[in-house]
Amino acid sequence: MPCSSIVSAPSCAFPFRSTSASTSSITPTAILLTKRTWKPRIETASLRKSVVRATVSIEKETPEAERPETFLRGVDEAHSSSSVRARFEKMIREAQDNVCSALEAADGGAQFKEDVWSRPGGGGGISRVLQDGAVWEKAGVNVSVVYGVMPADAYRAAKGAPTDQKPGPVPFFAAGISSVLHPKNPFAPTLHFNYRYFETDAPKDAPGAPRQWWFGGGTDLTPAYIFEEDVKHFHTVQKRACDKFDPTFYPRFKKWCDDYFYIKHRGERRGLGGIFFDDLNDYDQEMLLSFATECANSVIPAYLPIIEKRKDLPFTEHQKAWQQLRRGRYVEFNLVYDRGTTFGLKTGGRIESILVSLPLTARWEYDHKPEEGSEEWKLLDACINPKEWI
């Protein structure tokens, strides 16, 4: 994911808290994802102790009235427009503006709601959500630029693997754009994209170690029904962006995408793939910055032509129900496996920005199996057995 859930794929802009609906409002086959109403709690000594522990790593974001020119004030290199940090922030904020404008135009009326927030430890973000539009059930496009000190377990979550890192606080910088777009029409696919840049300095108990940096990101398509021409178009745009930098990127990052978005407990992928990469620092830093920029700029030409073709197609209740079942898989992956979600939980990211990755509605049916040979079965088969689309 990864707004932005900075570290990885599907979440958005640095955050996560579970939600629940009252049991009286839940049908046997569908659940509406809603926000829990706050209720006062009786404070105990043990609760006070846990709150104190939590504040070590979790900071409440502060709403801001206006967008700042940059979130980098007070950081090393903050005032240098030529630094990688500054140029990456500029890129993701321009990408956010461009994508939001294109989505509003496609919807034909609905507009994004914007929240600007800052983080006491350093940085902030811009969260934008379009909900219940003519085309979009829910569309989130978030950016965040945050920095400070993270606990060691958050560092391990960011790296996605066990590390021999000493268990001391680790100074970090993380910036990213993350978006999940859920259309209403079941023939129009969901899209996720996330591009991020990460730095860590020497941990507080190991001064003198070198600064580490890496890029991550990707764009992937999750349809409920397969239109081969759409999937081929989408993958062709991803390959074109990759080939400008290295002909090995597309096959390597396509496989990485197929492997990353694997729902282990289901034995299937979340969708039909795209590209995904993480911890990328074995190339020139300038080249990788240009590559991430090219990928972010490829989102609109890869996706909007598909939406224009599919957003107004007629559909049945059966087809809508299948879309909801596939969105259930989307929720399962995001809440169980996504690295960005894990990182957001461990660093106290902005809760609403992470939850924006979830659809308004999803559906679970007991032991549901599509009829063999049906269009629904073809989609499931493609998620179980990924193929080469181009």
From TrEMBL:
Enzyme Commission numbers on file: 1.3.3.3
| Entry-linked PANTHER family | COPROPORPHYRINOGEN III OXIDASE, MITOCHONDRIAL (PTHR10755), OXYGEN-DEPENDENT COPROPORPHYRINOGEN-III OXIDASE, MITOCHONDRIAL (PTHR10755:SF0)
Record-linked Pfam families? Coprogen_oxidas
Q: Outline the subunit composition.
A: Homodimer.
State the pathway, as annotated in the record: Porphyrin-containing compound metabolism; protoporphyrin-IX biosynthesis; protoporphyrinogen-IX from coproporphyrinogen-III (O2 route): step 1/1
Keyword field contains Oxidoreductase: yes
One GO cellular-component annotation of the UniProt record comes to:
chloroplast stroma
- Membrane spanning segments where? none
Predominant location category? plastid
**What protein name applies here?**
coproporphyrinogen oxidase
Sorted keywords for this record are: Chlorophyll biosynthesis, Chloroplast, Heme biosynthesis, Oxidoreductase, Plastid, Porphyrin biosynthesis, Transit peptide
Query: Where found, per UniProt?
Result: Plastid, Chloroplast
What's a single GO MF annotation on this record?
Answer: coproporphyrinogen oxidase activity
Q: Which Gene3D superfamilies match?
A: Coproporphyrinogen III oxidase, aerobic
Q: Which family does it belong to?
A: Belongs to the aerobic coproporphyrinogen-III oxidase family.
The domain of life is Eukaryota
Reactions performed catalytically? coproporphyrinogen III + O2 + 2 H(+) = protoporphyrinogen IX + 2 CO2 + 2 H2O
Q: One GO biological process from the UniProt record? A: chlorophyll biosynthetic process
SUPFAM superfamilies in the cross-refs: Coproporphyrinogen III oxidase (SSF102886)
Asked whether the keyword Cytoplasm is assigned, the reply is no
